[in-house]
Amino acid sequence: MHILKCHEIVKTDFVKAENCYLYDSEGKKYVDFESGIWCTVLGHNHRRINRVIHHHIQKVMHLGTRCLSPVVEEAAAELLDITGLKDGRCVFLSSGNEAVEFAVQIARRLSRKPRWLSFSGSYLGA
Length: 126
Description:
By secondary structure, the chain is an alpha+beta fold. Helix content is 33%, strand content 10%.
């Protein structure tokens, strides 16, 4: 197993990924220490998640934010129940960028503050 050092150039010939591993075109196995970022937080090629995704894309691939489906309504109701926000509302977004932007817009409207503080070079306003 190979570990990429921080100063090394990132390989671009990965052809397979499974759990926390990446495999290059020569069959070398690498630990993906970035697998917690974005959509691979549960690992690459997760069987259960892949099965659920495949099941749902056979029905409806994407509805956008203005259309409802029973799955979306059930998920929203569960989230509101878990958080104790009985009169709350849910917005399902596609990315962390959208979620942070949405949160900033809400905070601006509620606080009515004209300025925001952010670290230089920060990621997603963190």
